[in-house]
Specification:
Strand 1, helix 2 and strand 2 form a beta-alpha-beta unit. Helix content is 44%, strand content 10%. A two-stranded parallel ribbon has the order 1-2. It has three helices and two strands; from the N terminus they run H-E-H-E-H.
Length: 70
């Protein structure tokens, strides 16, 4: 699971995801089978999908923001 630095800049998000995708590709080229590339959450899911994510954590998109106040 990869989470890029907190940024609203999609290019910053995509750069981090792209680096992980390249690492995943290199690992697979070395003969290690990977069936999942888990990267991205609700705030950066579009960038993660664009860079090859196969699994996302999208809780906020489904359930809304968390309320930490008690």
């Amino acid at each position: 699971m990869a989470v890029p630095e907190a940024s609203h800049d999609e290019q910053v998000q995509r750069k981090a995801f792209r680096q992980l995708k390249q690492l995943s590709d290199a690992i697979q080229a070395a003969g290690i089978t990977l069936d999942t590339l888990s990267m991205g959450m609700s705030a950066d899911m579009h960038a993660a999908i664009a860079e090859g994510s196969t699994m996302l954590r999208i809780g906020t998109a489904i359930f809304g923001n968390r309320n930490y106040a008690k």
